[in-house]
Write a structure and sequence with these properties.
759 residues, alpha/beta, TIM Barrel, Rossmann fold, Immunoglobulin-like, 3 domains, 5-stranded parallel sheet, 23 helices, 31% helix, binds 1-deoxynojirimycin
């Protein structure tokens, strides 16, 4: 009997060994298995706490990109990391640091699940390209994609495998400081740029060492903060939501973006982080997004202040049920989700769904094969700041510059024999051109305008500061003291200007006067710069105004008086070289505004795709009862799509041909000037009568072309239902028959139009 028992137990043991080796074939470590099988296998081996750990993201230990969370300290973070209660970290950067935290996750936890490492790679890592609003002014999708590719190249070499970009929030209000981080006011252009940036970051194979996850943010409505005050309430109608706000997010899903970030704001009464219509119904169900959603920094805990959650536990419950898969810095999930599951308030299936999404993306990154894939010190040294990255940054910087005005062809400057006065603190600034959102880039690493111009030797250049822009040295987290009042260096600047043939004045905002938390009610030139401009104008009218800014500014006086105005934004590391090349005509400016520039801040929000209203302008009628301001025009000073060149273009021979469901459009564009140049040919539509009113104009196509002097090209567009339709108030996409107007030109103030009918 004893013998039999022994035999049976030996057999049982053998069976266990056999079944173990069977399951080990099925384990998540088996590279030969499909990702979904590996995810399911891993999930089946995880405790509830380990699953919730994957939904938890902690900030690293030095950069802070939001308010410090209430319940987090380094010791606790390390403890949680060792227990496998952390799925991701942000703001850990550099191979050494990333390797250290990854090693804990992979080598010290029970299941060895690697971390995904997030960082705000917004317009480059250490080498910076132009701020996103500036990049968007290039309308050059290839160059934009390349710049994101370069950002991914550098960031991945520094251990990062996830960027919180692109920000695809449409915004119509230049008071909002974060317009610098987006693609401007138009959903069509914004969608194209979102796609280009996502393809640039993610490439075609996420498991390559030089590609990283992209993140479409902030879902949704963040760009519509009331009065442009950051984090403010958003209350918009369904038509604006579906036709203006959501399209770039949908385009991001279509482009294959693997992560989404929700948002700080409430949208029509429900905080975006707790909004299950947005995250579950729309994003995950209707759009079939199978990546994961991260909250914004502390946006779960902020639902308490919004008045939507009674405490952190309640916030965790709302967020998880609404489809927020990962918690950034609220400490809500790590503290409360397990209890909520045990109490039946959050189903375990909700947790499983979130964790599967997160794990899937980790497998796609190839982290299970090699968790140290992004941790190669040699690559880090070779790639960061390499020639390839610097060249791409310069290329896009030139293409992002917009020539707003050029009276009497004051530009381009002559290369020889000129006395040039350079005035303005920003001309000699090597930090401000880096712009906002540049956590890894080092101060003083941009080429200043002065350095860029001095690289050309033929002219005599004299510099005077005139006035500072802001007080002190602005940085990423401290409140900027906007109003410098010191005018003591005006006289010196006037002396220098008086003796010059041409004065180049470099004025605008410091790089940290726009960006997160940087809303302004006055969007004129900060400090005493407007006075400085007017004082210099008194002694020399030959002024080229070079603007550095992260948002549209009000430039009424400058437009009325200054002959040449060049919008140079914050152009990144190669800023000064790019500006000098355009000033001297070695690059013929080709940028077009992605946002309207108002005449007055009181016009905001201002956008070219407005509705006609029941009382549009009544020309020639001397009555008051129409939609207007008494003291200012309705129109923009410089409208969306505006941008000049050193040459001129003529539009002719517009032909429209309808073929089944398509409308084929052909337009001839001729370079009638003396220089080679680029033009962004823009096509706009207006649906004249619709069940839900349509804007007076909507961008529905554009093409960037280059023409030799005298050359002509035929540009063709094909309009399909996608361009002809719109979303009704239930969010359903429809195309309605009727008459459409078609406009073509080099800006939203188009030059040629016709109409056609859809039957
Ligand atoms: C808050 C910002 O809104 C978001 O865009 C950013 O990615 C996170 N902080 C992380 O820094």
């Amino acid at each position: 009997m004893k013998k039999l028992k022994k035999i049976i137990s030996l057999l049982t043991l053998a069976g266990m060994v056999f079944s173990c080796s069977q399951t080990s074939k099925l384990t998540y470590k088996d590279m030969g298995l499909p990702i979904n099988d590996r995810v399911n296998d891993l999930l089946s081996k995880m405790t509830l706490e380990e699953k919730i750990g994957q939904m938890n993201q902690y900030n690293g230990f030095w950069n802070v990109t939001g308010p410090t969370p209430i319940q987090g300290d380094a010791a606790k973070k390390y403890k949680d990391l060792r227990k496998g209660y952390v799925g991701s970290m942000l703001n850990v950067r550099g191979v050494k640091e990333v390797r250290a935290v990854q090693k804990i996750a992979v080598e010290e936890t029970r299941l060895g699940i690697p971390l995904v490492i997030g960082f705000d790679v917004i317009h480059g890592y250490e080498t910076l390209s132009p701020i996103p609003l500036a990049e968007s002014a290039s309308w050059d999708l290839e160059a934009i994609q390349k710049s994101s590719e370069m950002a991914a190249l550098e960031a991945s070499a520094a251990g990062i495998n996830w960027t919180f970009a692109p920000m695809v929030d449409v915004s119509r209000d230049a008071r909002w400081g974060r317009v610098m981080e987006g693609a401007g006011e138009d959903p069509y252009l914004g969608s194209k740029i979102a796609k280009a940036r996502i393809l640039g970051f993610q490439g075609t194979d996420l498991s390559k060492e030089n590609t990283i996850l992209a993140c479409a943010k902030h879902f949704a409505g963040y760009g519509f903060a009331e009065s442009g005050r950051d984090y403010n309430t958003v209350d918009i109608g369904t038509s604006t939501l579906h036709n203006i706000v959501l399209p770039p997010f949908k385009a991001s899903v279509d482009a294959g973006v693997r992560t989404f970030m929700n948002s700080f704001n409430e949208l029509n009464g429900i905080p975006a982080t707790g909004n299950s219509y947005l995250q579950r119904d729309l994003l995950k169900q209707e759009w079939k997004f199978d990546g994961f959603v991260i909250s914004d920094w502390g946006s779960m805990v902020e639902m308490i202040a919004h008045g939507h959650a009674k405490d952190l536990k309640h916030a965790a419950e709302i967020a998880a049920n609404a489809g927020s898969d990962m918690d950034m810095e609220s400490n809500a999930y790590v503290h409360h989700l397990a209890d909520l599951v045990k109490e039946g308030k959050v189903k375990e299936s909700v947790i499983d769904d979130a964790v599967k999404r997160i794990l899937k993306v980790k497998f796609e990154l190839g982290l299970f094969e090699d968790p140290y894939r992004y941790c190669d010190e040699k690559r880090e040294q070779n790639v960061i700041g390499s020639k390839e990255v610097l060249d791409a940054s310069l290329d896009l910087a030139k293409k992002s510059i917009v020539l707003l005005k050029n009276q009497n062809n004051l530009l381009p400057l002559k290369k020889q024999g000129q006395k040039i006065a350079i005035i303005g603190a920003l001309a000699n600034d090597k930090t401000s051109p880096l712009g906002s959102w540049r956590i890894a880039a080092k101060d003083s690493t941009a080429v200043s305008v002065l350095e860029g111009l001095n690289a050309y030797k033929g002219n005599s250049i004299v510099y005077a500061k005139g006035a500072d822009v802001a007080l002190g040295t602005p940085d990423f987290i401290t409140e900027v003291k906007i109003n410098n009042t010191d005018k003591s260096e005006f006289e010196e600047a006037k002396k220098v200007a008086k003796n010059a043939d041409v004065v180049v004045m470099v004025l605008g905002e410091h790089g940290f006067q726009s960006g997160e938390g940087r809303s302004r009610v006055d969007i004129g030139l900060p400090g005493v710069q407007q006075e400085l401009l007017e004082e210099i104008y008194k002694v020399n009218k030959n002024i080229v105004l070079v603007l550095n800014n992260g948002r549209p500014l009000t430039l009424g006086w400058a437009d009325a008086n200054i002959p040449s105005i060049l919008e140079c934004w914050q152009l990144g590391t190669q800023s000064g070289h790019a500006i000098a090349q355009v000033l001297y005509g070695d690059y013929n400016p080709s940028g077009k505004l992605p946002m309207s520039f108002p005449r007055h801040v009181g016009q905001l929000p201002l956008y070219y795709n407005y509705k006609n209203t029941g009382r549009p302008i009544l020309p020639g009628k001397d009555v008051v009862f129409w939609s207007h301001f008494q003291d200012e025009k309705n129109s923009a000073l410089y409208p969306f799509g505006h941008g000049l060149s050193y040459t001129q273009f003529e539009y002719e021979n517009l032909k429209v041909h309808q073929k089944e469901d398509e409308v084929h459009v052909k337009i001839g564009v001729k370079n009638i000037g003396k220089l080679k140049g680029k033009e962004v040919v823009q096509l706009y539509l207006r649906d004249l009568v619709a069940s839900v009113t349509r804007p007076v104009k909507e961008l529905k196509g554009f093409e960037l072309i280059e023409l030799e002097a005298g050359e002509e090209k035929i540009v063709e567009f094909v309009l399909t239902n996608k361009e002809l339709g719109f979303y009704d108030n239930k969010g359903k996409f429809i195309v309605e028959p009727g008459e459409f107007k078609l406009f073509l030109g080099g800006s939203s103030k188009t030059v040629i139009e016709t109409s056609f009918e859809i039957k």
